[in-house]
Amino acid sequence: MRKSLASIAGVCVIGAGLAFSAGEASAQAVLRIGSHSPPNGHPVRQVKKWMSRVEKDAGGTLVFKEFWGGQLIRSPRKQFEGMMNGIQDASPILPSYTAKLFPDFSVFTLPFLFKDAEESSYVSWKMYEAGLLRGLDKVYVAAVYTNDNGGMHFTEKLASVEAMRGLKVRAAGPGESAIVKAMGGVPVGMGITQVAQSLNSGVIQGTLAGWSALVPFKIMPLIRTHIDYPFGVRSFFLGITKTVYDALPEKAKQAIDKNSGLTESRRLGRSNQGVGDRLRKRAGEDPNRVVFTLTDEQIAVQAKKFQHFHDEWIAKTKDGAKKYQALQGLIAGYRKGK
To answer: For residue 242, what are the domain limits?
Structure first.
């Protein structure tokens, strides 16, 4: 924890969770930031880098008070609700846990869409910037980013991909559940914090998750089989309650603005991809593990088999065709180096 409320002399609370030092010419705000993620895991470490830059540029007008590992809100599904209710002021949010509140974010979970997490993070921010992601009107959004493409990870060594049929596989939301079904598995909805215990006890036999999530949530040691197909990414946004942001000292807001946006979104995605790639390499060199992958030609074939997921998303989503076309245009532009 960087600085507690008790360490700031003469603090007066203004609104839910936001405090300013009393009697100073330049107010100092304290923002409570937290999530269910463990404090030393890669996702939180990357957010802390953003926090450090913001605090430095804020010049003493803003400090963060940290509450990781579910200190304020234990459930992954309650993080956004808690932020809106003033339990915490800022948090990295995973929209798939509350998909009805963020209906457009499910496009990023579509299989065989993105090549890597920096690409998907670039597209995610651009979609937000264009006003194509609903549910964020009460939030100041510092970044929209993703982890690497999710694979399916199992506790037993499987002889083939087909051997996963009938196995219970954790999925984070309806989009992931549909993919598990398409592969022959039985989807089980649960938060990432429950996965390791559920795998260990046999409640589930596998999980659909990005590789970068396997270590911080203690899943990697339990896994023996990885199906490393591009099953889609999980999107996040780093948000601050809008009313809290609006009440900050001007210099604090300028510091946040300076460190937010496309560059930060790409940095977070690139970092997640790097972690995932290192774990893929480690798994491939481990004789106690089996990793199933696809060639580029096989990916093209499989993508056609999963196209109906894309068509269904377009059909059921408001302005789905417009949004999907915009997304494809952003992907094409990114790949051309625009």
So the answer is: 92-338
In a domain, residue 126? The reply is yes
pLDDT, residue 18, reads 57
Structure tokens at 5: 């409320």
Kindly report, residue by residue over 97-136, the tens digit of the pLDDT: 898 999 999 999 999 999 999 999 999 999 999 999 999 9
* 222 within domain boundaries: yes
In a domain, 23, yes or no: no
> The pTM is what?
0.88
φ, ψ for residue 50 (rounded to 5)? -60, -45
pLDDT of residue 14: 39
Lookup result for tokens 């040691």 = 221
pLDDT of 338 reads: 60
* Residues in the chain with pLDDT values less than 70: 1-26, 338
Task: Round to whole Å and give the CA distance between 140 and 137.
Answer: 8
Task: Tally the C-alpha atoms within 13 A of residue 15's C-alpha that lie toward its C-beta.
Answer: 20
Q: Write down the residue that tokens 């106690």 correspond to.
A: 288
Say how many CA atoms lie within 13 Å of 125 toward its Cβ.
Answer: 23
For residues 62 and 52, is the Cβ–Cβ distance under 8 A? Answer: no
The torsion region of residue 153 among left (phi > 0), alpha (psi -120 to 50) and beta comes to beta
Count up the domains in the chain and report the number: 1
Residue 191 has a pLDDT of: 87
Instruction: State the CATH number of the domain containing residue 149.
Output: 3.40.190.170
DSSP result, 63-84:
EEEEE-TTSS---GGGHHHHHH
In a domain, 28, yes or no: no
